[in-house]
Amino acid sequence: MTAPALHLYTDSSPNGFKxxxxxxxxxxxxxxxxxxxxxxxxxxxxxxxxxPHGRIPVLHDAGTGIxxxxxxxxxxxxxxxxxxxxxPAPAARWEAITWLMFHSASMGPLLGQRVHAECFAADxxxxxxxRYRRLSExxxxxxDARLAEREWLAGDxxxxxxxxxxxxxHIARIVEFDFxxxxxxSAWHLRASRRPAVQRGIALPQPATGP
Length: 211
Ligand SMILES: N[C@@H](CCC(=O)N[C@@H](CS)C(=O)NCC(=O)O)C(=O)O
What we know:
globular, single chain, Glutaredoxin, four-stranded mixed beta sheet, Glutathione S-transferase Yfyf (Class Pi), Chain A, domain 2, alpha+beta, 9% strand, binds glutathione, 8 helices
């Protein structure tokens, strides 16, 4: 049997789960390399040669020689490679890319800061907690309104925009940020979490745990 061309370097974290979910949805064979952040493996020179920013996830495609970091770039690469998880029609395709970018540049980083400020900061700073709570709640409201009359974020099928958003909403649920008041977002989260590939993806390399 030939070795899979795709190599994913990842850990159990919001950005990592996006790619395990996408690979499981696509059914692509891949080799999973567990980069243990807690043990500082993301600072090892071999890993920094793949991503100079020292962050997971990283995808290397031995078939094309292409190495990528930044989860949104990896999701776009996988969609481009397979012709799946991104609507083909231009309007829906650009909608999906817009919501992917909303996630990557706005919602994801804000939620990341909120998780740190609320759950992990050694020295809790109330103004930061309030700021990131308010800003992330704003993005939840935007997503909730978007999902009021549609099943998925773009087009009429589950796409990389949903996968990226789910990566962080899954963590929001694990750390017990209550978004149940955003009923459409909540229903979308439940819908996505019932997909078998999503369930496999969030268990790789192992399930996330709370603070
Ligand atoms: N914008 C990047 C963020 C990547 C990122 O921050 N990954 C985290 C895990 S979710 C990481 O590797 N953290 C290690 C560290 O902060 O030192 C992406 O979307 O891939």
